[in-house]
Amino acid sequence: SAAPIGPHVVHARARCTRRMVISPSTERRPLIAVDDASTASTASQHETALAGDFVDVERAARRAHASTTSRIASSALRMSAAACAALVTVATLVTRASDDAGVGGSAARTRAYRFASTMSLDEQLTLLGGQVEEAYIGSTSGFVVSSTRARVPELRMNDGPQGFRAHNQPGTTTQWPCALAVAATFDVGLAHAWGGAMGGEFVRKGANVFLGPGMNLARVPLGGRNFEYIAGEDPALGSAMAPAVIRGIQSRGVIATAKHFIFNEQERDRMYYDAQVDERSMREMYLPMFEASIKDAEVGSIMCSYNKVNGSHACQNSVYMNEILRDDLGFEGFVMSDWLATHSTVPSLKSGLDMEMPTAGLFSRDRLKYALEATNALGKPMLSAERIKVAATRVLTSMFRAGIMDEEETIPRAIDADVRTYNDTTLARNIVAKSAILLKNDGNLLPLDPDAQNKTIITFGAMCAQPWSLSGGGSGHVDPGAKNVFTVNDGLHNAGQDFKWYDEHQLDQALTEATKMGDDLLAIIVCDGAGAGESLDRPRITLNAHQQPVSRFSEKFRKKIVIIVTAPGHVVIPQHADASSILLSFFPGEQAGLGLADVVFGKHAPGGKLPITIPNSENELGNFDQEQYPGTGGKVVYKEGLHVGYRWYNAKGLRPAFHFGHGLTYTTFKYTDAVVETFPVDSSIAANVSFSVTNTGDRIASEVVQVYVTYPRDAQEPPRQLKAFKKIVVAAGQTKQVSLALPVRALQIWSTKEKKWSNVPGEFTFHVGGTSELRKLIACDPVQTHGPDATSGVLEYFGRP
Question: What pLDDT, on the 0 to 100 scale, is given for residue 786?
Fold first, then answer.
């Protein structure tokens, strides 16, 4: 389906009736982090407003007044009678609907608040922290409510990003292609299927919280966990793909977790660094994936990250967790800490953290009860019981929405169960093929003829026979068992193809054998790649190991050389000029060999496009200095602003090795008749881009059609930004008409002055094509728009990124 970028405006408007009656966002100051024993001089305005989420106008106003926020309450009470009546009506309808309308949206929140009201303080506290867990990565205790005998099931949490990580049960779950591979498909439907299949394995393993998907940007090419992130290097791509994955996971009754919130773009010093990020870059680049996950998928939980953000720990940052997540984006679920990322008790809880993981230390019952009884230097309670209830309600809201609270009996712990299925492994194999990116294919070497009789392939390199570069380490690691892993050599064998394999120590023998074969040599496949994992960034992205072997093969056999690269993200391929074909696959998982063989022999045409930019050399992309990466003095400064990934190349007018959005297949496409239609200012759609795509080759294949927008020059935006895309299948000789609608947000910029998304005056340029490379795009006629004030300075209004 089409994937317009950004939160859907109509959907966002529909959610307005579900927001809190009183919003203190315009009144709140950033909370200063303090120790538990120090003075809590800032009243918890947010605490009061959150309690008002579940009640009517008058009760919210009284509670606001009682908590020293009378100014906010007074403004609410000064509302017109009609406005108050309308809000009360909405609240009443929501309350009544919750009795019989299922658990979607505010119905789940209302049920959760009522349920929490029947619980004792000790029972509420049970939901705020994890317990010692041996089977799953984390869990909370299940219990029976003493007053009603209602059951609260335990939450069983598990990694993660590449499938269910079973510590001591290898071969019982599927090692899926990684999130970056799924991002490379640019296929929203396939992302949903991937999420749903992994969610199904979680259910069969007895887990109900999926610690993923990850949606940080691939800002740093060396980033150790880039393979875990569904956004690649573009917020537009992530804002379409992340909600699809979440909807798939949560369709199985499993709570998904959007992570890592926020600015966790590197593993080096992740526990300590302080990300210094300007407001506009945050809104336009790093927040959209989380926003879309909330507004378009109602994600159940969000995991805050280890690092600091502009001076405060991410898990103790009221600006991001209270003001942005809750007040602005309307997040109703719970925020959990990354493992051991909680740094305090009262400040963290008041700043919006609801659950400490993996165990309740700083959120232990004793510490929280002490905070409830203690007073600060002004004689006021350090913590209110209402804040505990709010946190418990948030956890319960996600449990009700997922259907966990309505299960007649607890799903048995099944950590030892073998949950692999034929359908799942088939889907994994298909994703490998649909995410494989054909970087080059000189002379149409690929696909190889599967019926070439009496011809042999030479495979070269340890990675042709070993699986170590098929999956990441850390939370993204899944052990599928040796019998379930298919390498490149396994794929060739399964396809019935004769081949001879040589490792790095047998180059001379391989050259001799290739020469001896003569015309009977079908191809030389060189396997290369790199590993990566949690806690460490990569030392380099250059693949040097096979530079000399490929050069020597190229002297006689260049037209027959295929390089297959399996990697966690960015790579520099020095030998790419010496090969006819290069096939790139991001950590493809256990079915790698089978899926790649399907592509090599033409059973499936390669369907992937680059979700990142492939640079020419180390540290070319962004040309980072030490302040930007890895940081200096404990700070990492995002001073590149909006110029991340391909946007940096576009702004500088430089050419990378391979462009974002690039990916060849076994046919060619021609784009024609591009037209842009604009809509009135008050419409939810800003523009509609229509064009024709013709398959000019001789076989059916998929294409990812992409729309890039250039803002007026004074807006200081990087040129040609992805704003919409759609994966289509076009038969040989067929022409398809494509129309992509761009929501209003797609043409807006974040105003640092007005603190909102605003229109931009001036001329917009639209390009369409199958890549971000300018010379392969076709342009539409420019479009003129009017901003909020055509006479004011644009830079003054929006602020420099």
Answer: 62
